[in-house]
Amino acid sequence: MMSQSEFYDKLCGVLSKEQVLCEEPMSRHTTFRTGGPADYFVTPRPEQAADVVALCKKEQMPYQIIGNGSNLLVGDRGIRGVTIAFTKPAAQIQVQGNQLKAGSGALLSQAAAAAYQAGLGGMEFAAGIPGSVGGAVVMNAGAYGGEIKDILAHAVVLTREGEVQRLDGMQLALSYRNSCIRERRMAVLEAVFLLKPTPAGEIQARMEELKQKRIEKQPLEYPSAGSTFKRPQGYFAGKLIMDAGLAGCAVGGAQVSRKHCGFIINTGGAVSADILHLIHHVQQTVKNKFGVALEPEVRCIGEF
């Protein structure tokens, strides 16, 4: 079996040493600010991703693909194998006509700002979503009546067979907070959005309106992964949780936000086990009281 140092050397043959970190604490890379170490944490450019995946397959090394960690709960024991993160090296943004092309590592806020500067409307809803473009496509992110599927022209993906393909929203099976990307183990390399010319003042006003709504209603002062649960059909998750008497309910440093019960927050010192325990407690309590099953938006990876 290949030693850790031998595999590290092979990774550095595909990437630069600056792009390969060993035993990297995932608390530095998740918005919950929790999570144990990743054996190898790599940040490839889009054109390097296929070579990294090919190496992992050749050496039978498990790998995970993540964005900027805004929708992740990483186990306290960390992640075995290679964690491939699309971050700054994959964050290019270009505007051509009515289209905005963004690398998977670009933040949604950066893409929305670039659209605004180019006088293109349609991305205002995304300006305050704390996620990357790649992650947003994977989960069809949305807020305040807008969703990625509404503006996505196509995405360039890397398939698990190592092929680069261009797929539109229908081919990606975009639905409420879901797509076929994770199930098919594809990775988003870039996305192209089709927007429309809009007066700058109108874009700015809409972005400011949504910003104020977030400040008023969301616990932005605490680490979290945004809305913890998907909206169950016919209900609102936050109201169900509040009506179940769970506002302020805590496990260790994890707490159901009193400001918005749909958020589980890290009030300080929480570990991933606290958050996971609280998620399960909320699910069980709501199920017992109202017969409604809450499905997490948060993706759990690694060893708990």
Textual characterization of the structure:
The protein has helices at 4-14, 49-58, 108-117, 133-139, 148-151, 200-217, 237-243, 272-290, and strands at 20-25, 37-42, 63-66, 72-74, 79-85, 93-96, 99-103, 120-121, 142-143, 146-147, 152-158, 164-167, 187-194, 196-197, 224-227, 250-251, 254-256, 263-266, 299-301. With 304 residues, the protein is of the alpha+beta class. A hairpin with a 2-residue loop joins β6 (93-96) and β7 (99-103). The two termini are 26 Å apart. The mean pLDDT is 96.
List the helices and strands and how they pair.
Elements: H1 4-14, E1 20-25, E2 37-42, H2 49-58, E3 63-66, E4 72-74, E5 79-85, E6 93-96, E7 99-103, H3 108-117, E8 120-121, H4 133-139, E9 142-143, E10 146-147, H5 148-151, E11 152-158, E12 164-167, E13 187-194, E14 196-197, H6 200-217, E15 224-227, H7 237-243, E16 250-251, E17 254-256, E18 263-266, H8 272-290, E19 299-301
Parallel strand pairs: 2-5, 3-5, 4-19
Antiparallel strand pairs: 1-2, 6-7, 7-13, 8-14, 9-10, 11-12, 11-13, 15-18, 16-17, 17-18
